[in-house]
């Protein structure tokens, strides 16, 4: 058999060679090389044909690694395509990879989740956002929902629950951790200005100080607060001292009552 006859009988072994691991081509970028069966903005692999493509946005690398590990157990349903630790990196990655769902942290040093939402919407990228945050403050929930997020869950969620939430928002549902839905209903039923905080004492606290205060009022130890927020115990102590000074309170009991009166707990 001559070479031309062999090529006619084995077209898969032409000039390009047999398909191997390199078959994903040059279009694969990092973790996005998962194949066309992953559901993204374009709808490739939509429905039950493949896992939902997810992009992680959080400024703590340790937390992102934890989310990846949790979702790896549900790889047939959810596939992490990429991740980012800053607003600029997130916007570029989302625009390039076009995931179906973005898991979005609310608080980041360079603008946070609201800024990611704004920039991505400006670019016309049709992805769905699901906020994933340690904060369950009403103002945080309402801010990102008004910005275009489809849901909001807290970081106490389990891996299975998170995979379910990703699928639900990808399918068009709105998803909230149990106590958070009431914030949204109240805000949108009472009008556009209902989410505004008019308490000057509360306004003087930074978002991180509010996070620390909220956990402190729930009975967390300094070490537990540090673990939850990915900060050192010394940093927790600094935030608590700052809150005590700003509120002119003297102990943890008074702080807890102050926080409860303002619905921070």
TrEMBL record:
InterPro entries in the record, alphabetically? CheY-like_superfamily, NreC/VraR/RcsB-like_REC, Sig_transdc_resp-reg_C-effctor, Sig_transdc_resp-reg_receiver, Tscrpt_reg_LuxR_C, WalR-like
Ranges in coiled-coil conformation: none
GO biological process, alphabetically ordered: phosphorelay signal transduction system; regulation of DNA-templated transcription
Composition-biased stretches (Basic and acidic residues): 1-11
**One Pfam short name:** Response_reg
Modified positions (4-aspartylphosphate) are: 105
- Which residue ranges does the record assign to the HTH luxR-type domain? 198-263
Listed GO MF terms: DNA binding
Q: Which CDD domains match?
A: LuxR_C_like, REC_NarL-like
The answer, when asked if Cell cycle is one of the entry's keywords, is no
Q: Provide the alphabetized UniProt keywords.
A: DNA-binding, Phosphoprotein
Ranges for the Response regulatory domain?
53-170
**Which residue ranges does the record annotate as region Disordered?**
1-49
Q: Name the chain's protein.
A: Two component transcriptional regulator, LuxR family
């Amino acid at each position: 058999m001559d070479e031309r006859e062999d090529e006619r009988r084995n077209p898969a072994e032409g000039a390009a060679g047999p398909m191997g691991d390199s078959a994903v081509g040059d279009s694969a970028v990092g973790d996005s090389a998962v194949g066309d069966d992953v559901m993204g903005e374009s709808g490739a692999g939509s429905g039950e044909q493949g896992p939902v493509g997810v992009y992680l946005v959080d400024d703590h690398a340790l937390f992102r690694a934890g989310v990846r590990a949790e979702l790896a157990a549900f790889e047939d349903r959810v596939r992490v395509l990429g991740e980012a630790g800053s607003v600029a990196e997130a916007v570029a990655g989302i625009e390039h990879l076009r995931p179906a769902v973005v898991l979005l942290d609310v608080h980041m040093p360079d603008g946070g989740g609201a800024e990611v939402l704004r920039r991505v919407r400006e670019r016309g990228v049709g992805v769905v956002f699901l906020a994933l945050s340690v904060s369950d403050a009403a103002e945080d929930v309402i801010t990102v929902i008004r910005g275009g997020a489809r849901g909001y869950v807290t970081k106490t969620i389990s891996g299975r629950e998170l995979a379910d939430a990703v699928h639900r928002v990808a399918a068009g549902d709105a998803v909230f951790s149990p106590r958070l839905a009431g914030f949204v209903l109240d805000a949108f039923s009472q009008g556009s200005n209902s989410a505004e905080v008019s308490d000057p004492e509360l306004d003087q606290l930074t978002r991180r100080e509010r996070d620390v205060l909220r956990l402190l009022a729930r009975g967390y130890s300094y070490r537990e607060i540090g673990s939850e927020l990915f900060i050192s115990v010394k940093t927790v102590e600094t935030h608590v001292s700052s809150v005590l000074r700003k509120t002119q309170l003297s102990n943890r009991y008074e702080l807890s009552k102050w926080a409860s009166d303002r619905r921070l707990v």
